[in-house]
Amino acid sequence: MRNDERLYVDIHVLQTVPPSCxxxxxxxxxxxxxxxxxxxxxxxxxxxxxxxxLKFREMLSEGDVSQRTKMVVDLIAAEIIALSPDCxxxxxxxxxxxxxxxAGIKIKEDKEKLKxxxxxxxxxxxxxxxxxxxxxxxxxxxxxxxxxxxxxxxxGVDLALFGRMVADDPCLNYDAAAQVAHAISxxxxxxxxxxxxxxxxxxxxxxAGAGHLGTVEFNSSTLYRYATVNVGELxxxxxxxxxxxxxxxxxAFIRSMPTGKQNTFANWTRPDAVYVTVxxxxxINLAGAFEKPVRAxxxxxxxxxxxxxxxxxxxxYADFASAPVLALTxxxxxxxxxxxxxxxxxxxxxxxxxxSHEAQG
Length: 361
What we know:
With 361 residues, this protein is α+β, with helices and mostly antiparallel strands. Helix content is 37%, strand content 23%. It has helices at 45-59, 72-83, 89-102, 124-137, 144-152, 157-162, 231-238, 242-255, 262-265, 300-319, 343-360; strands at residues 8-20, 32-35, 38-43, 67-69, 107-110, 113-116, 120-122, 178-180, 183-185, 192-198, 212-230, 273-279, 326-330, 339-340. The strands form three sheets. Strands 1, 2, 3, 8, 9, 10, 11, 12, 13 and 14 form a ten-stranded mixed beta sheet that branches. Helix 2 packs across helix 4 (124-137) and helix 8 runs antiparallel to helix 11. The longest helix has 20 residues, at 300-319.
C-alpha cells in the first residue's frame, strides 16, 4: 500500500438488545442521548471498546494484547525478574521506576505502590524492551531517547487500533487507527423500572416482609453501531500484520458485548445485520438513516431499521459520495448493499482482499 493512499474499512451493525442496562450513567440509569428530537438509548464508545479489548484476549496472541494500567512499574519489574531471576523484587521495582522516569513518565507512591499518574497503555514488547534497557544499564544513566524509542516501537494490535494519550510527554502518544461511535437506538425509547425484592433464606418462615428491595432502571432497543479503521495509519504501525488486525477488530466489534448488568439481564444477542465497506475517499457514518426515528412495524424495529439503512446508503452513494470499492453484508434484507455472507465468510473475504491489496501495493 502506498503511503499516500487512503483506505478505510467501515463497519455498520444493527443489533437488538432486550430489557437491559448495558451502559450506566453516574446515577445508575441507562445512558441516553437526544437525536432527531427524541430520546435514544445509547452505549458509549468507551464501553464497547473495553468489551472489544477483552475479546482480543481470546482472539489474539499474548504479544499482541496490551495492558492499560497505572501499575506499569510492576509489569516492568516482573519482566526484569523473568529476564534475571537473581534480581530482587526491590531492585526490580527500583529499576522499573528509573527506566520509566527516564522516558518522561512520572511515577508516584500510592499506598506503598508505585503508580503512573494516569492509566498507561503499554504492549508486552514495550515492557520487554524497557526491562532489557534497565538490566543493561543497571543503576547507571538511562538514555531518554532510547527509553522513549522503546515506548514508541512495537505496539500491540489494540494499542495501534485505539491509540494512547500521555499527558506527561505527548511525544509518546499514538494516534488511534480506529474510531468507534457511540451506539444509539434507531428509535425513541423510554426507560422503565424493575421493582424487585429479595428473600432472606435464614430469616424465620413466618416473616411477611422482604430481606431487601430496590429498583433497576432498564430499556430495550435496536442499536445502530458504527466504527471505522484507517488502514494506512494502521499499516504504518503494524506493517504486514494489518489485514489480520483489521479482521480481529471487526470480529471483536461484531461479537463483543459490554458487561453492564449482564447477570441481571443476560442480554447477549447477535447482530441483526452487518454491513462492511472498503472506501478510498473517507469514512462515512450512516447514522443519518435514523435521524427520523424508526417506528415499529410488523417486523418490529429491526425490519424497518434495515430498510432505512439500505435506502440511506443508496441515497448517499447516489448524491454525496462514491460507492465503496468492496461491500460485504450479513443478514436478511441487506442484499441490496453487497454480497451476502455469514460472519466468518465476511471476515475471511475482507482479510483476503486486504492481503491481495497489500501485495499489489
